[in-house]
Amino acid sequence: xxxxxxxSECAPFIKTGGLGDxxxxxxxxLKKQGINVSVILPKFKDLPFQIKQEMTHVTSIEVPVxxxxxxxxxxxLVANGITYYFLDNEYYFKRHGSYGYFDDGxxxxxxxxxxxxxxxxxxxxxxxxxxxxxxxxxxxxxxKAHYQxxxxxxxxxxxxxxHNLLYxxxxxxxxxxxxxxxxxxxxxxxxLEFHGNVSYLKxxxxxxNYITTVSPxxxxxxxxxxxxxxxxxxxxxxxxxxKGIINGIDNESYNPASDEYLPVPFSTYEGKMKNKRELxxxxxxxxxxxVPVISMVTRLxxxxxxxxxxxxxxEMMGQGIQFxxxxxxxxxxxxxxxxxxxxYPNQVSTNTxxxxxxxxxxxxGSDIFLMPSQFEPCGIGQLIAMRYGALPLVRxxxxxxxxxxPYNQFTGEGNGFSFTNYNAHDMLHTIEQAVGMYKFQPKxxxxxTENAMNEDFSWDSSSSExxxxxESLLTIKK
Length: 478
Prior knowledge:
alpha/beta; six-stranded parallel sheet; 18 strands; globular
């Protein structure tokens, strides 16, 4: 079986969030199970220089973008047994950063069409194109509109995965003719139309053979008005073709026993405590085993529940904790946390940047990892935290609900802590419980930490679910 992953980012080449982690790890897990997977990506300017040097040129083609013909270079790199293709156009992709430009609608219209135009030049002809998020949402509709009668394309099936329904790629209706060469037929009749505009994400929902999202709970949630981002009705309509498959993590990359970023690689609770002391020291916090360290490695945006934390922050400090933050985002939140660090210099470390090595050291050196999200399609932070012995404290939503088992004081079972309602004082009460357990029940805390470290959140079981889905698709006649 040949599967082509189409996405806008992939670790370790280019990554802005969890999507990059998934595209970096899932193809490797599928390959271990005998699936032949290739990955196709934009050749962004920010790709590491060494990676660009290792690419080989396959060919150059022209790609239709509305009435224009645009240059596209196809370059190839083989790593970890996976073939990666990079589509090159300097006008669209030779810019700092991956997204956020005024012409993103045109950039990713080009990318989606270029994916399809590249198929004759790939080493392996894909039977399935697995598309990810709005940046590749157009692939399935362009395949149907422009290629379905071509013998090379007529049997190709498509899967579309929603990593976050909030980001939809919505552009004016004029892109239909101007960029996509599509008729009104594809706009109407439950097609690309979204409140008078064109939604690239809805294109993926409407025209792909199958839709997945990144946790079973999120698959249920997005079919309700609260989480559905005005697409819940459409998702209910396609309920039979929608499945939630939980994300995993790459256990080889995220391995505290061999992680070169850590001051002290570890596999025991005692080794973790050494990392805690190192973290406290490097962040200029008092080195004290008895003070629980609560951490966040996050984007500072509304989705992540930042308002809950700020609402009860002084009460949190009153519990005698240390708080460590790593991440960037909205200026008002960055300013607020810097202000709190000035108020509590011996308890708070605010770091408004992102660094992979520092993130790993924080996972390894903190006791509690806080994720009070409004919504969370899957979340990877809580999985990495458990792998590194930091107990997640989360709101029960999406993938957080599916992966974090709240501690049961009667049976000793669990791998973290959780609260149900999006409420600051519910969160605070749960933090009080966790901090109390850390301070007054150290043996139980150690056991719970070891429970979390022994959880298996590798991609093995999830990749098997994708394989079952692929195999079912290939039995469908065109």
